[in-house]
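Ticket #4471: structure output looks truncated?

Reporter: J.K.
Steps to reproduce: submitted the chain below (154 residues) through the standard prediction queue, then opened the result file.
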Amino acid sequence: MNSELVVLATNLGLGEPQSRELALKFSLACAKRIEHLLEDSEVVQCLHVLEHYVAGRASQEMLLLAQQDAARLANQHRGSRSIDGCGHAAVSASYGVAKAVAGRAVDAAQYCAYAAVYASGGYAAVADRQAFEPEFAWQLQCLRGMAPVNLVNR
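Returned output as attached by the reporter:
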């Protein structure tokens, strides 16, 4: 878990309705980093709806439908067909998108970080806390850069 991100998200009130726009924008940034790991075109489409919503080109209704679809698709992902699933990060990436479309920024960040690290080295990588540090640092920098300055420094 990215404890520094959790602290920043809490200080920003990222889970509160007044911060929904920031939460969606940050969630989108995290999900875009792992988009290449997605295997299901329907999940990719859900991510694109979020992208369009953040850009002001999709309605709340479209986002809600994408939210439902993304959650269903993530829960139905078949996973890897190999015995150990090594290097197969699509399930976590799908959950990352589902959480992103729902505006659950910290959860989205966690799933996306896991997917990124798992894709780079399988189980051995995710067992090593240090393997997450580059992604955690990027997430923290990204959210700080998006947040209003007066809220980051309180």
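Triage note (M.O.): checked the attachment and the full token line is present. Residues 18-152 form one domain.
Status: closed, working as intended.
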